[in-house]
Specification:
Blueprint lengths: L2 E5 L2 E4 L4 E8 L8 E7 L6 E6 L6 E3 L7 E6 L4 E6 L8 E8 L10 E4 L3 E6 L1
Parallel strand pairs: 2-11
Antiparallel strand pairs: 1-3, 3-8, 4-5, 4-9, 5-6, 7-8, 9-10, 9-11
Length: about 120
């Protein structure tokens, strides 16, 4: 059983930066999993944000965050990160970390473990 705990969310102004962290516990090392970040805004469906492969050699992003967000992982620390720069009000959402047994994927249905989420609010 993989337990994922997100942190680093908060209230920021447009143009600011945040770094989200996702720490895995439960005796399982995340190096065996592809990892992803998703977000869900009020009244909207959960959407893919970024994904990273087991080794970190493959990353993928939704178009709206390309060039602004960077996903990375430190398997030694069992942690995945999402660096978010140039934040916009439309980035406001609850951000979720997830783990997949696939090398990497953008499809939420392929993720088997999910964190509880961390709120990111960007004011204009």
């Amino acid at each position: 059983q993989v337990q994922l705990v997100e942190s680093g969310g908060g209230l920021v102004q447009a143009g600011d930066s945040l770094r989200l962290s996702c720490a895995a516990s439960g005796g399982t090392f995340i190096r065996s999993y592809g990892m992803g970040w998703f977000r869900q805004a009020p009244g909207k469906e959960r959407e893919f944000v970024a994904a990273i492969s087991w080794s970190g050699s493959i990353t993928d992003y939704t178009d709206s965050v390309k060039g602004r967000f960077t996903i990375s992982r430190d398997n030694a620390k069992n942690t995945v990160y999402l660096q978010m720069n140039s934040l916009k009000p439309e980035d406001t959402a609850v951000y979720y970390c997830a783990a997949t047994r696939a090398i990497w994927t953008t499809r939420p249905g392929d993720y088997v473990y999910w964190g509880q989420g961390t709120q990111v609010t960007v004011s204009s």
